[in-house]
Amino acid sequence: ECERLVQSVLELNLNGFQITFELLDHHKSGQECAQTYEWYFLDTKRCATHIVYDTLLTRYGLCDSVRQWLEPMVKMINSVDLWLEEGYAFEFGKVAMRMIVECKELNRFMFDKEDREYKLALLKESAKFLGQEKGEILLDNAILEMKKCFLKGSLLSATLDNLISKYQSELLAQKAESCSIYWKQYRGFLSYSIGNISVLANLFLKNNPQFDFFIDVSARGNVSLRANNACDVSVLAKNYFNGGGHANASGGKIDGFKESFIYDNIKECVQNILKGEEYE
Asked: How far apart are CA 240 and CA 226, in angstroms?
């Protein structure tokens, strides 16, 4: 892989580009490559976050207001990533790590930018507890409220599930044109890998009556269909996705489905299926 990278960059530079590159790594398995290539930087004593932070800080600097909260967070992440139980804020790091690992409220495929902003916002808010006495407990207790506040609610305003559905529904509405698919005279909204769409799909269809049905396809080709009395999705499930169910809630599967990280590929696949033989 390293040799292919060198050759690719060389070819580009010979064609007029001016590319320089460096690889930052903290995994011991990279030792051989680090000894072979001068652009391969390896440091097993710091986690990736710490290495990247120090590198960018040296080259570009950082304003004091950001550095004040970010640098302790980097030290904390280094402790938990390398599992240094006596390291700085190790217990706090365990809570912060769980917070991010379990942060699945926004689907990364449909809402990549928003999901990243969500996680960064939680990390920045959690920094307020870092350094406080029993900060890990304070953070543990605050996570639910932090999530609700980001999702435009408060601790007592609504359940997390309802806030998530409302927030996602508003984001999906912004993708109305690009995510539209059609079956006969019906217009549907296609999402990818959201999962558990019952609450979200029903809310979306209620708030966006221009859509007749909602369809979500998983990475394995499983299909979930919802409607709001505008069409019978059990017909869709039966005739196009080898499934069945109820008029407003059905499911199925796409045979031979190929996972993709490109939404347009998924949309083309589903739309082609729905262009097949029509059933009355």
From this structure: 15
Sign (positive or negative) of CA dihedral 227, 229, 234, 237 = negative
Tokens of 226: 């919802």
Structure tokens belonging to residue 53: 């932070």
CA 151 from chain centre, in angstroms, equals 15
Which residue ranges make up each domain of the chain?
2-42, 48-157, 177-274
Whether the CB-CB separation of 252 and 241 falls below 8 Å is answered with yes
Placement of tokens 């870092």 in the chain: 130
pLDDT higher than 70, residue 219: yes
255, pLDDT greater than 60: yes
- 177-274 — its CATH code? 3.10.310.30
CA angle 180, 267, 182 (to 5 degrees): 40
SS3 state of residue 74: helix
Mean pLDDT to the nearest integer, 20-31: 94
| Helix segments in 24-111, DSSP class H | 31-36, 48-60, 64-81, 90-101
pTM assigned to the model:
0.82
- pLDDT, position 260: 86
Per-residue model confidence as pLDDT tens digits over 116-165: 999 999 999 999 999 999 999 999 999 999 999 999 999 999 999 899 99
Q: How far apart are CA 226 and CA 243, in angstroms?
A: 13
Q: Which structure tokens are listed for 167?
A: 């927030």
